[in-house]
Amino acid sequence: MNDALNLLKTRRSIRKYKNTPIEEEKIQKCLEAARWAPSASNKQPWEFLIVTDETIRMKLSELHPYAKFVAESPVVFIPLTNPEIHQKYHMSDTALATMQYMIEAHSIGLGTCWAGVIGTPMEQEMKELLGIPAHLNILGLVATGYANEEPTRGRKNLDDLVHYERY
Ligand SMILES: Cc1cc2nc3c(=O)[nH]c(=O)nc-3n(C[C@H](O)[C@H](O)[C@H](O)COP(=O)(O)O)c2cc1C
Fold first, then answer.
1. Distance between start and end Cα atoms, the chain
2. 119 belongs to a structural domain
């Protein structure tokens, strides 16, 4: 059963990865899913960077205190936001593209974990390391690979979140 709700409910952030390389066509499918995200006025204020180089992944993991797992995942997807294309919605639009990447990854058997970067002091160092132009922002690092763990996680109850008609 691969309906959307099932995919959304079974995706978990993966922080332990197998040493198995990812087939190139699988990464292309994830990128294609990201490209088809909705965006304000269809401006698509994003670019994507794929990093596989082990030395660079090690350096990224050293720079990010909560993303040590990018040293282990064979691929790191790096969504970049472009505020020059949409000043107001560059972040939310690129977050949607990132989520679509993650859901497609899950649907084809890959694990991911998003680690936030934008607005943190390490962002500039990462931009220099990766040669990213000044006008772009690093939304986050998304580790991608075959899962080597099966974590569980809960959510708040709908009753505590939803209001009908008026708050
Ligand atoms: C914007 C954002 C930033 C995150 N940053 C980190 C991070 O730095 N390190 C990490 O291990 N997980 C990070 N996560 C993953 C969350 O911890 C995870 O999504 C949350 O605990 C729910 O778990 P689940 O994804 O398995 O359902 C981030 C997620 C989002 C959406």
1. 35
2. no
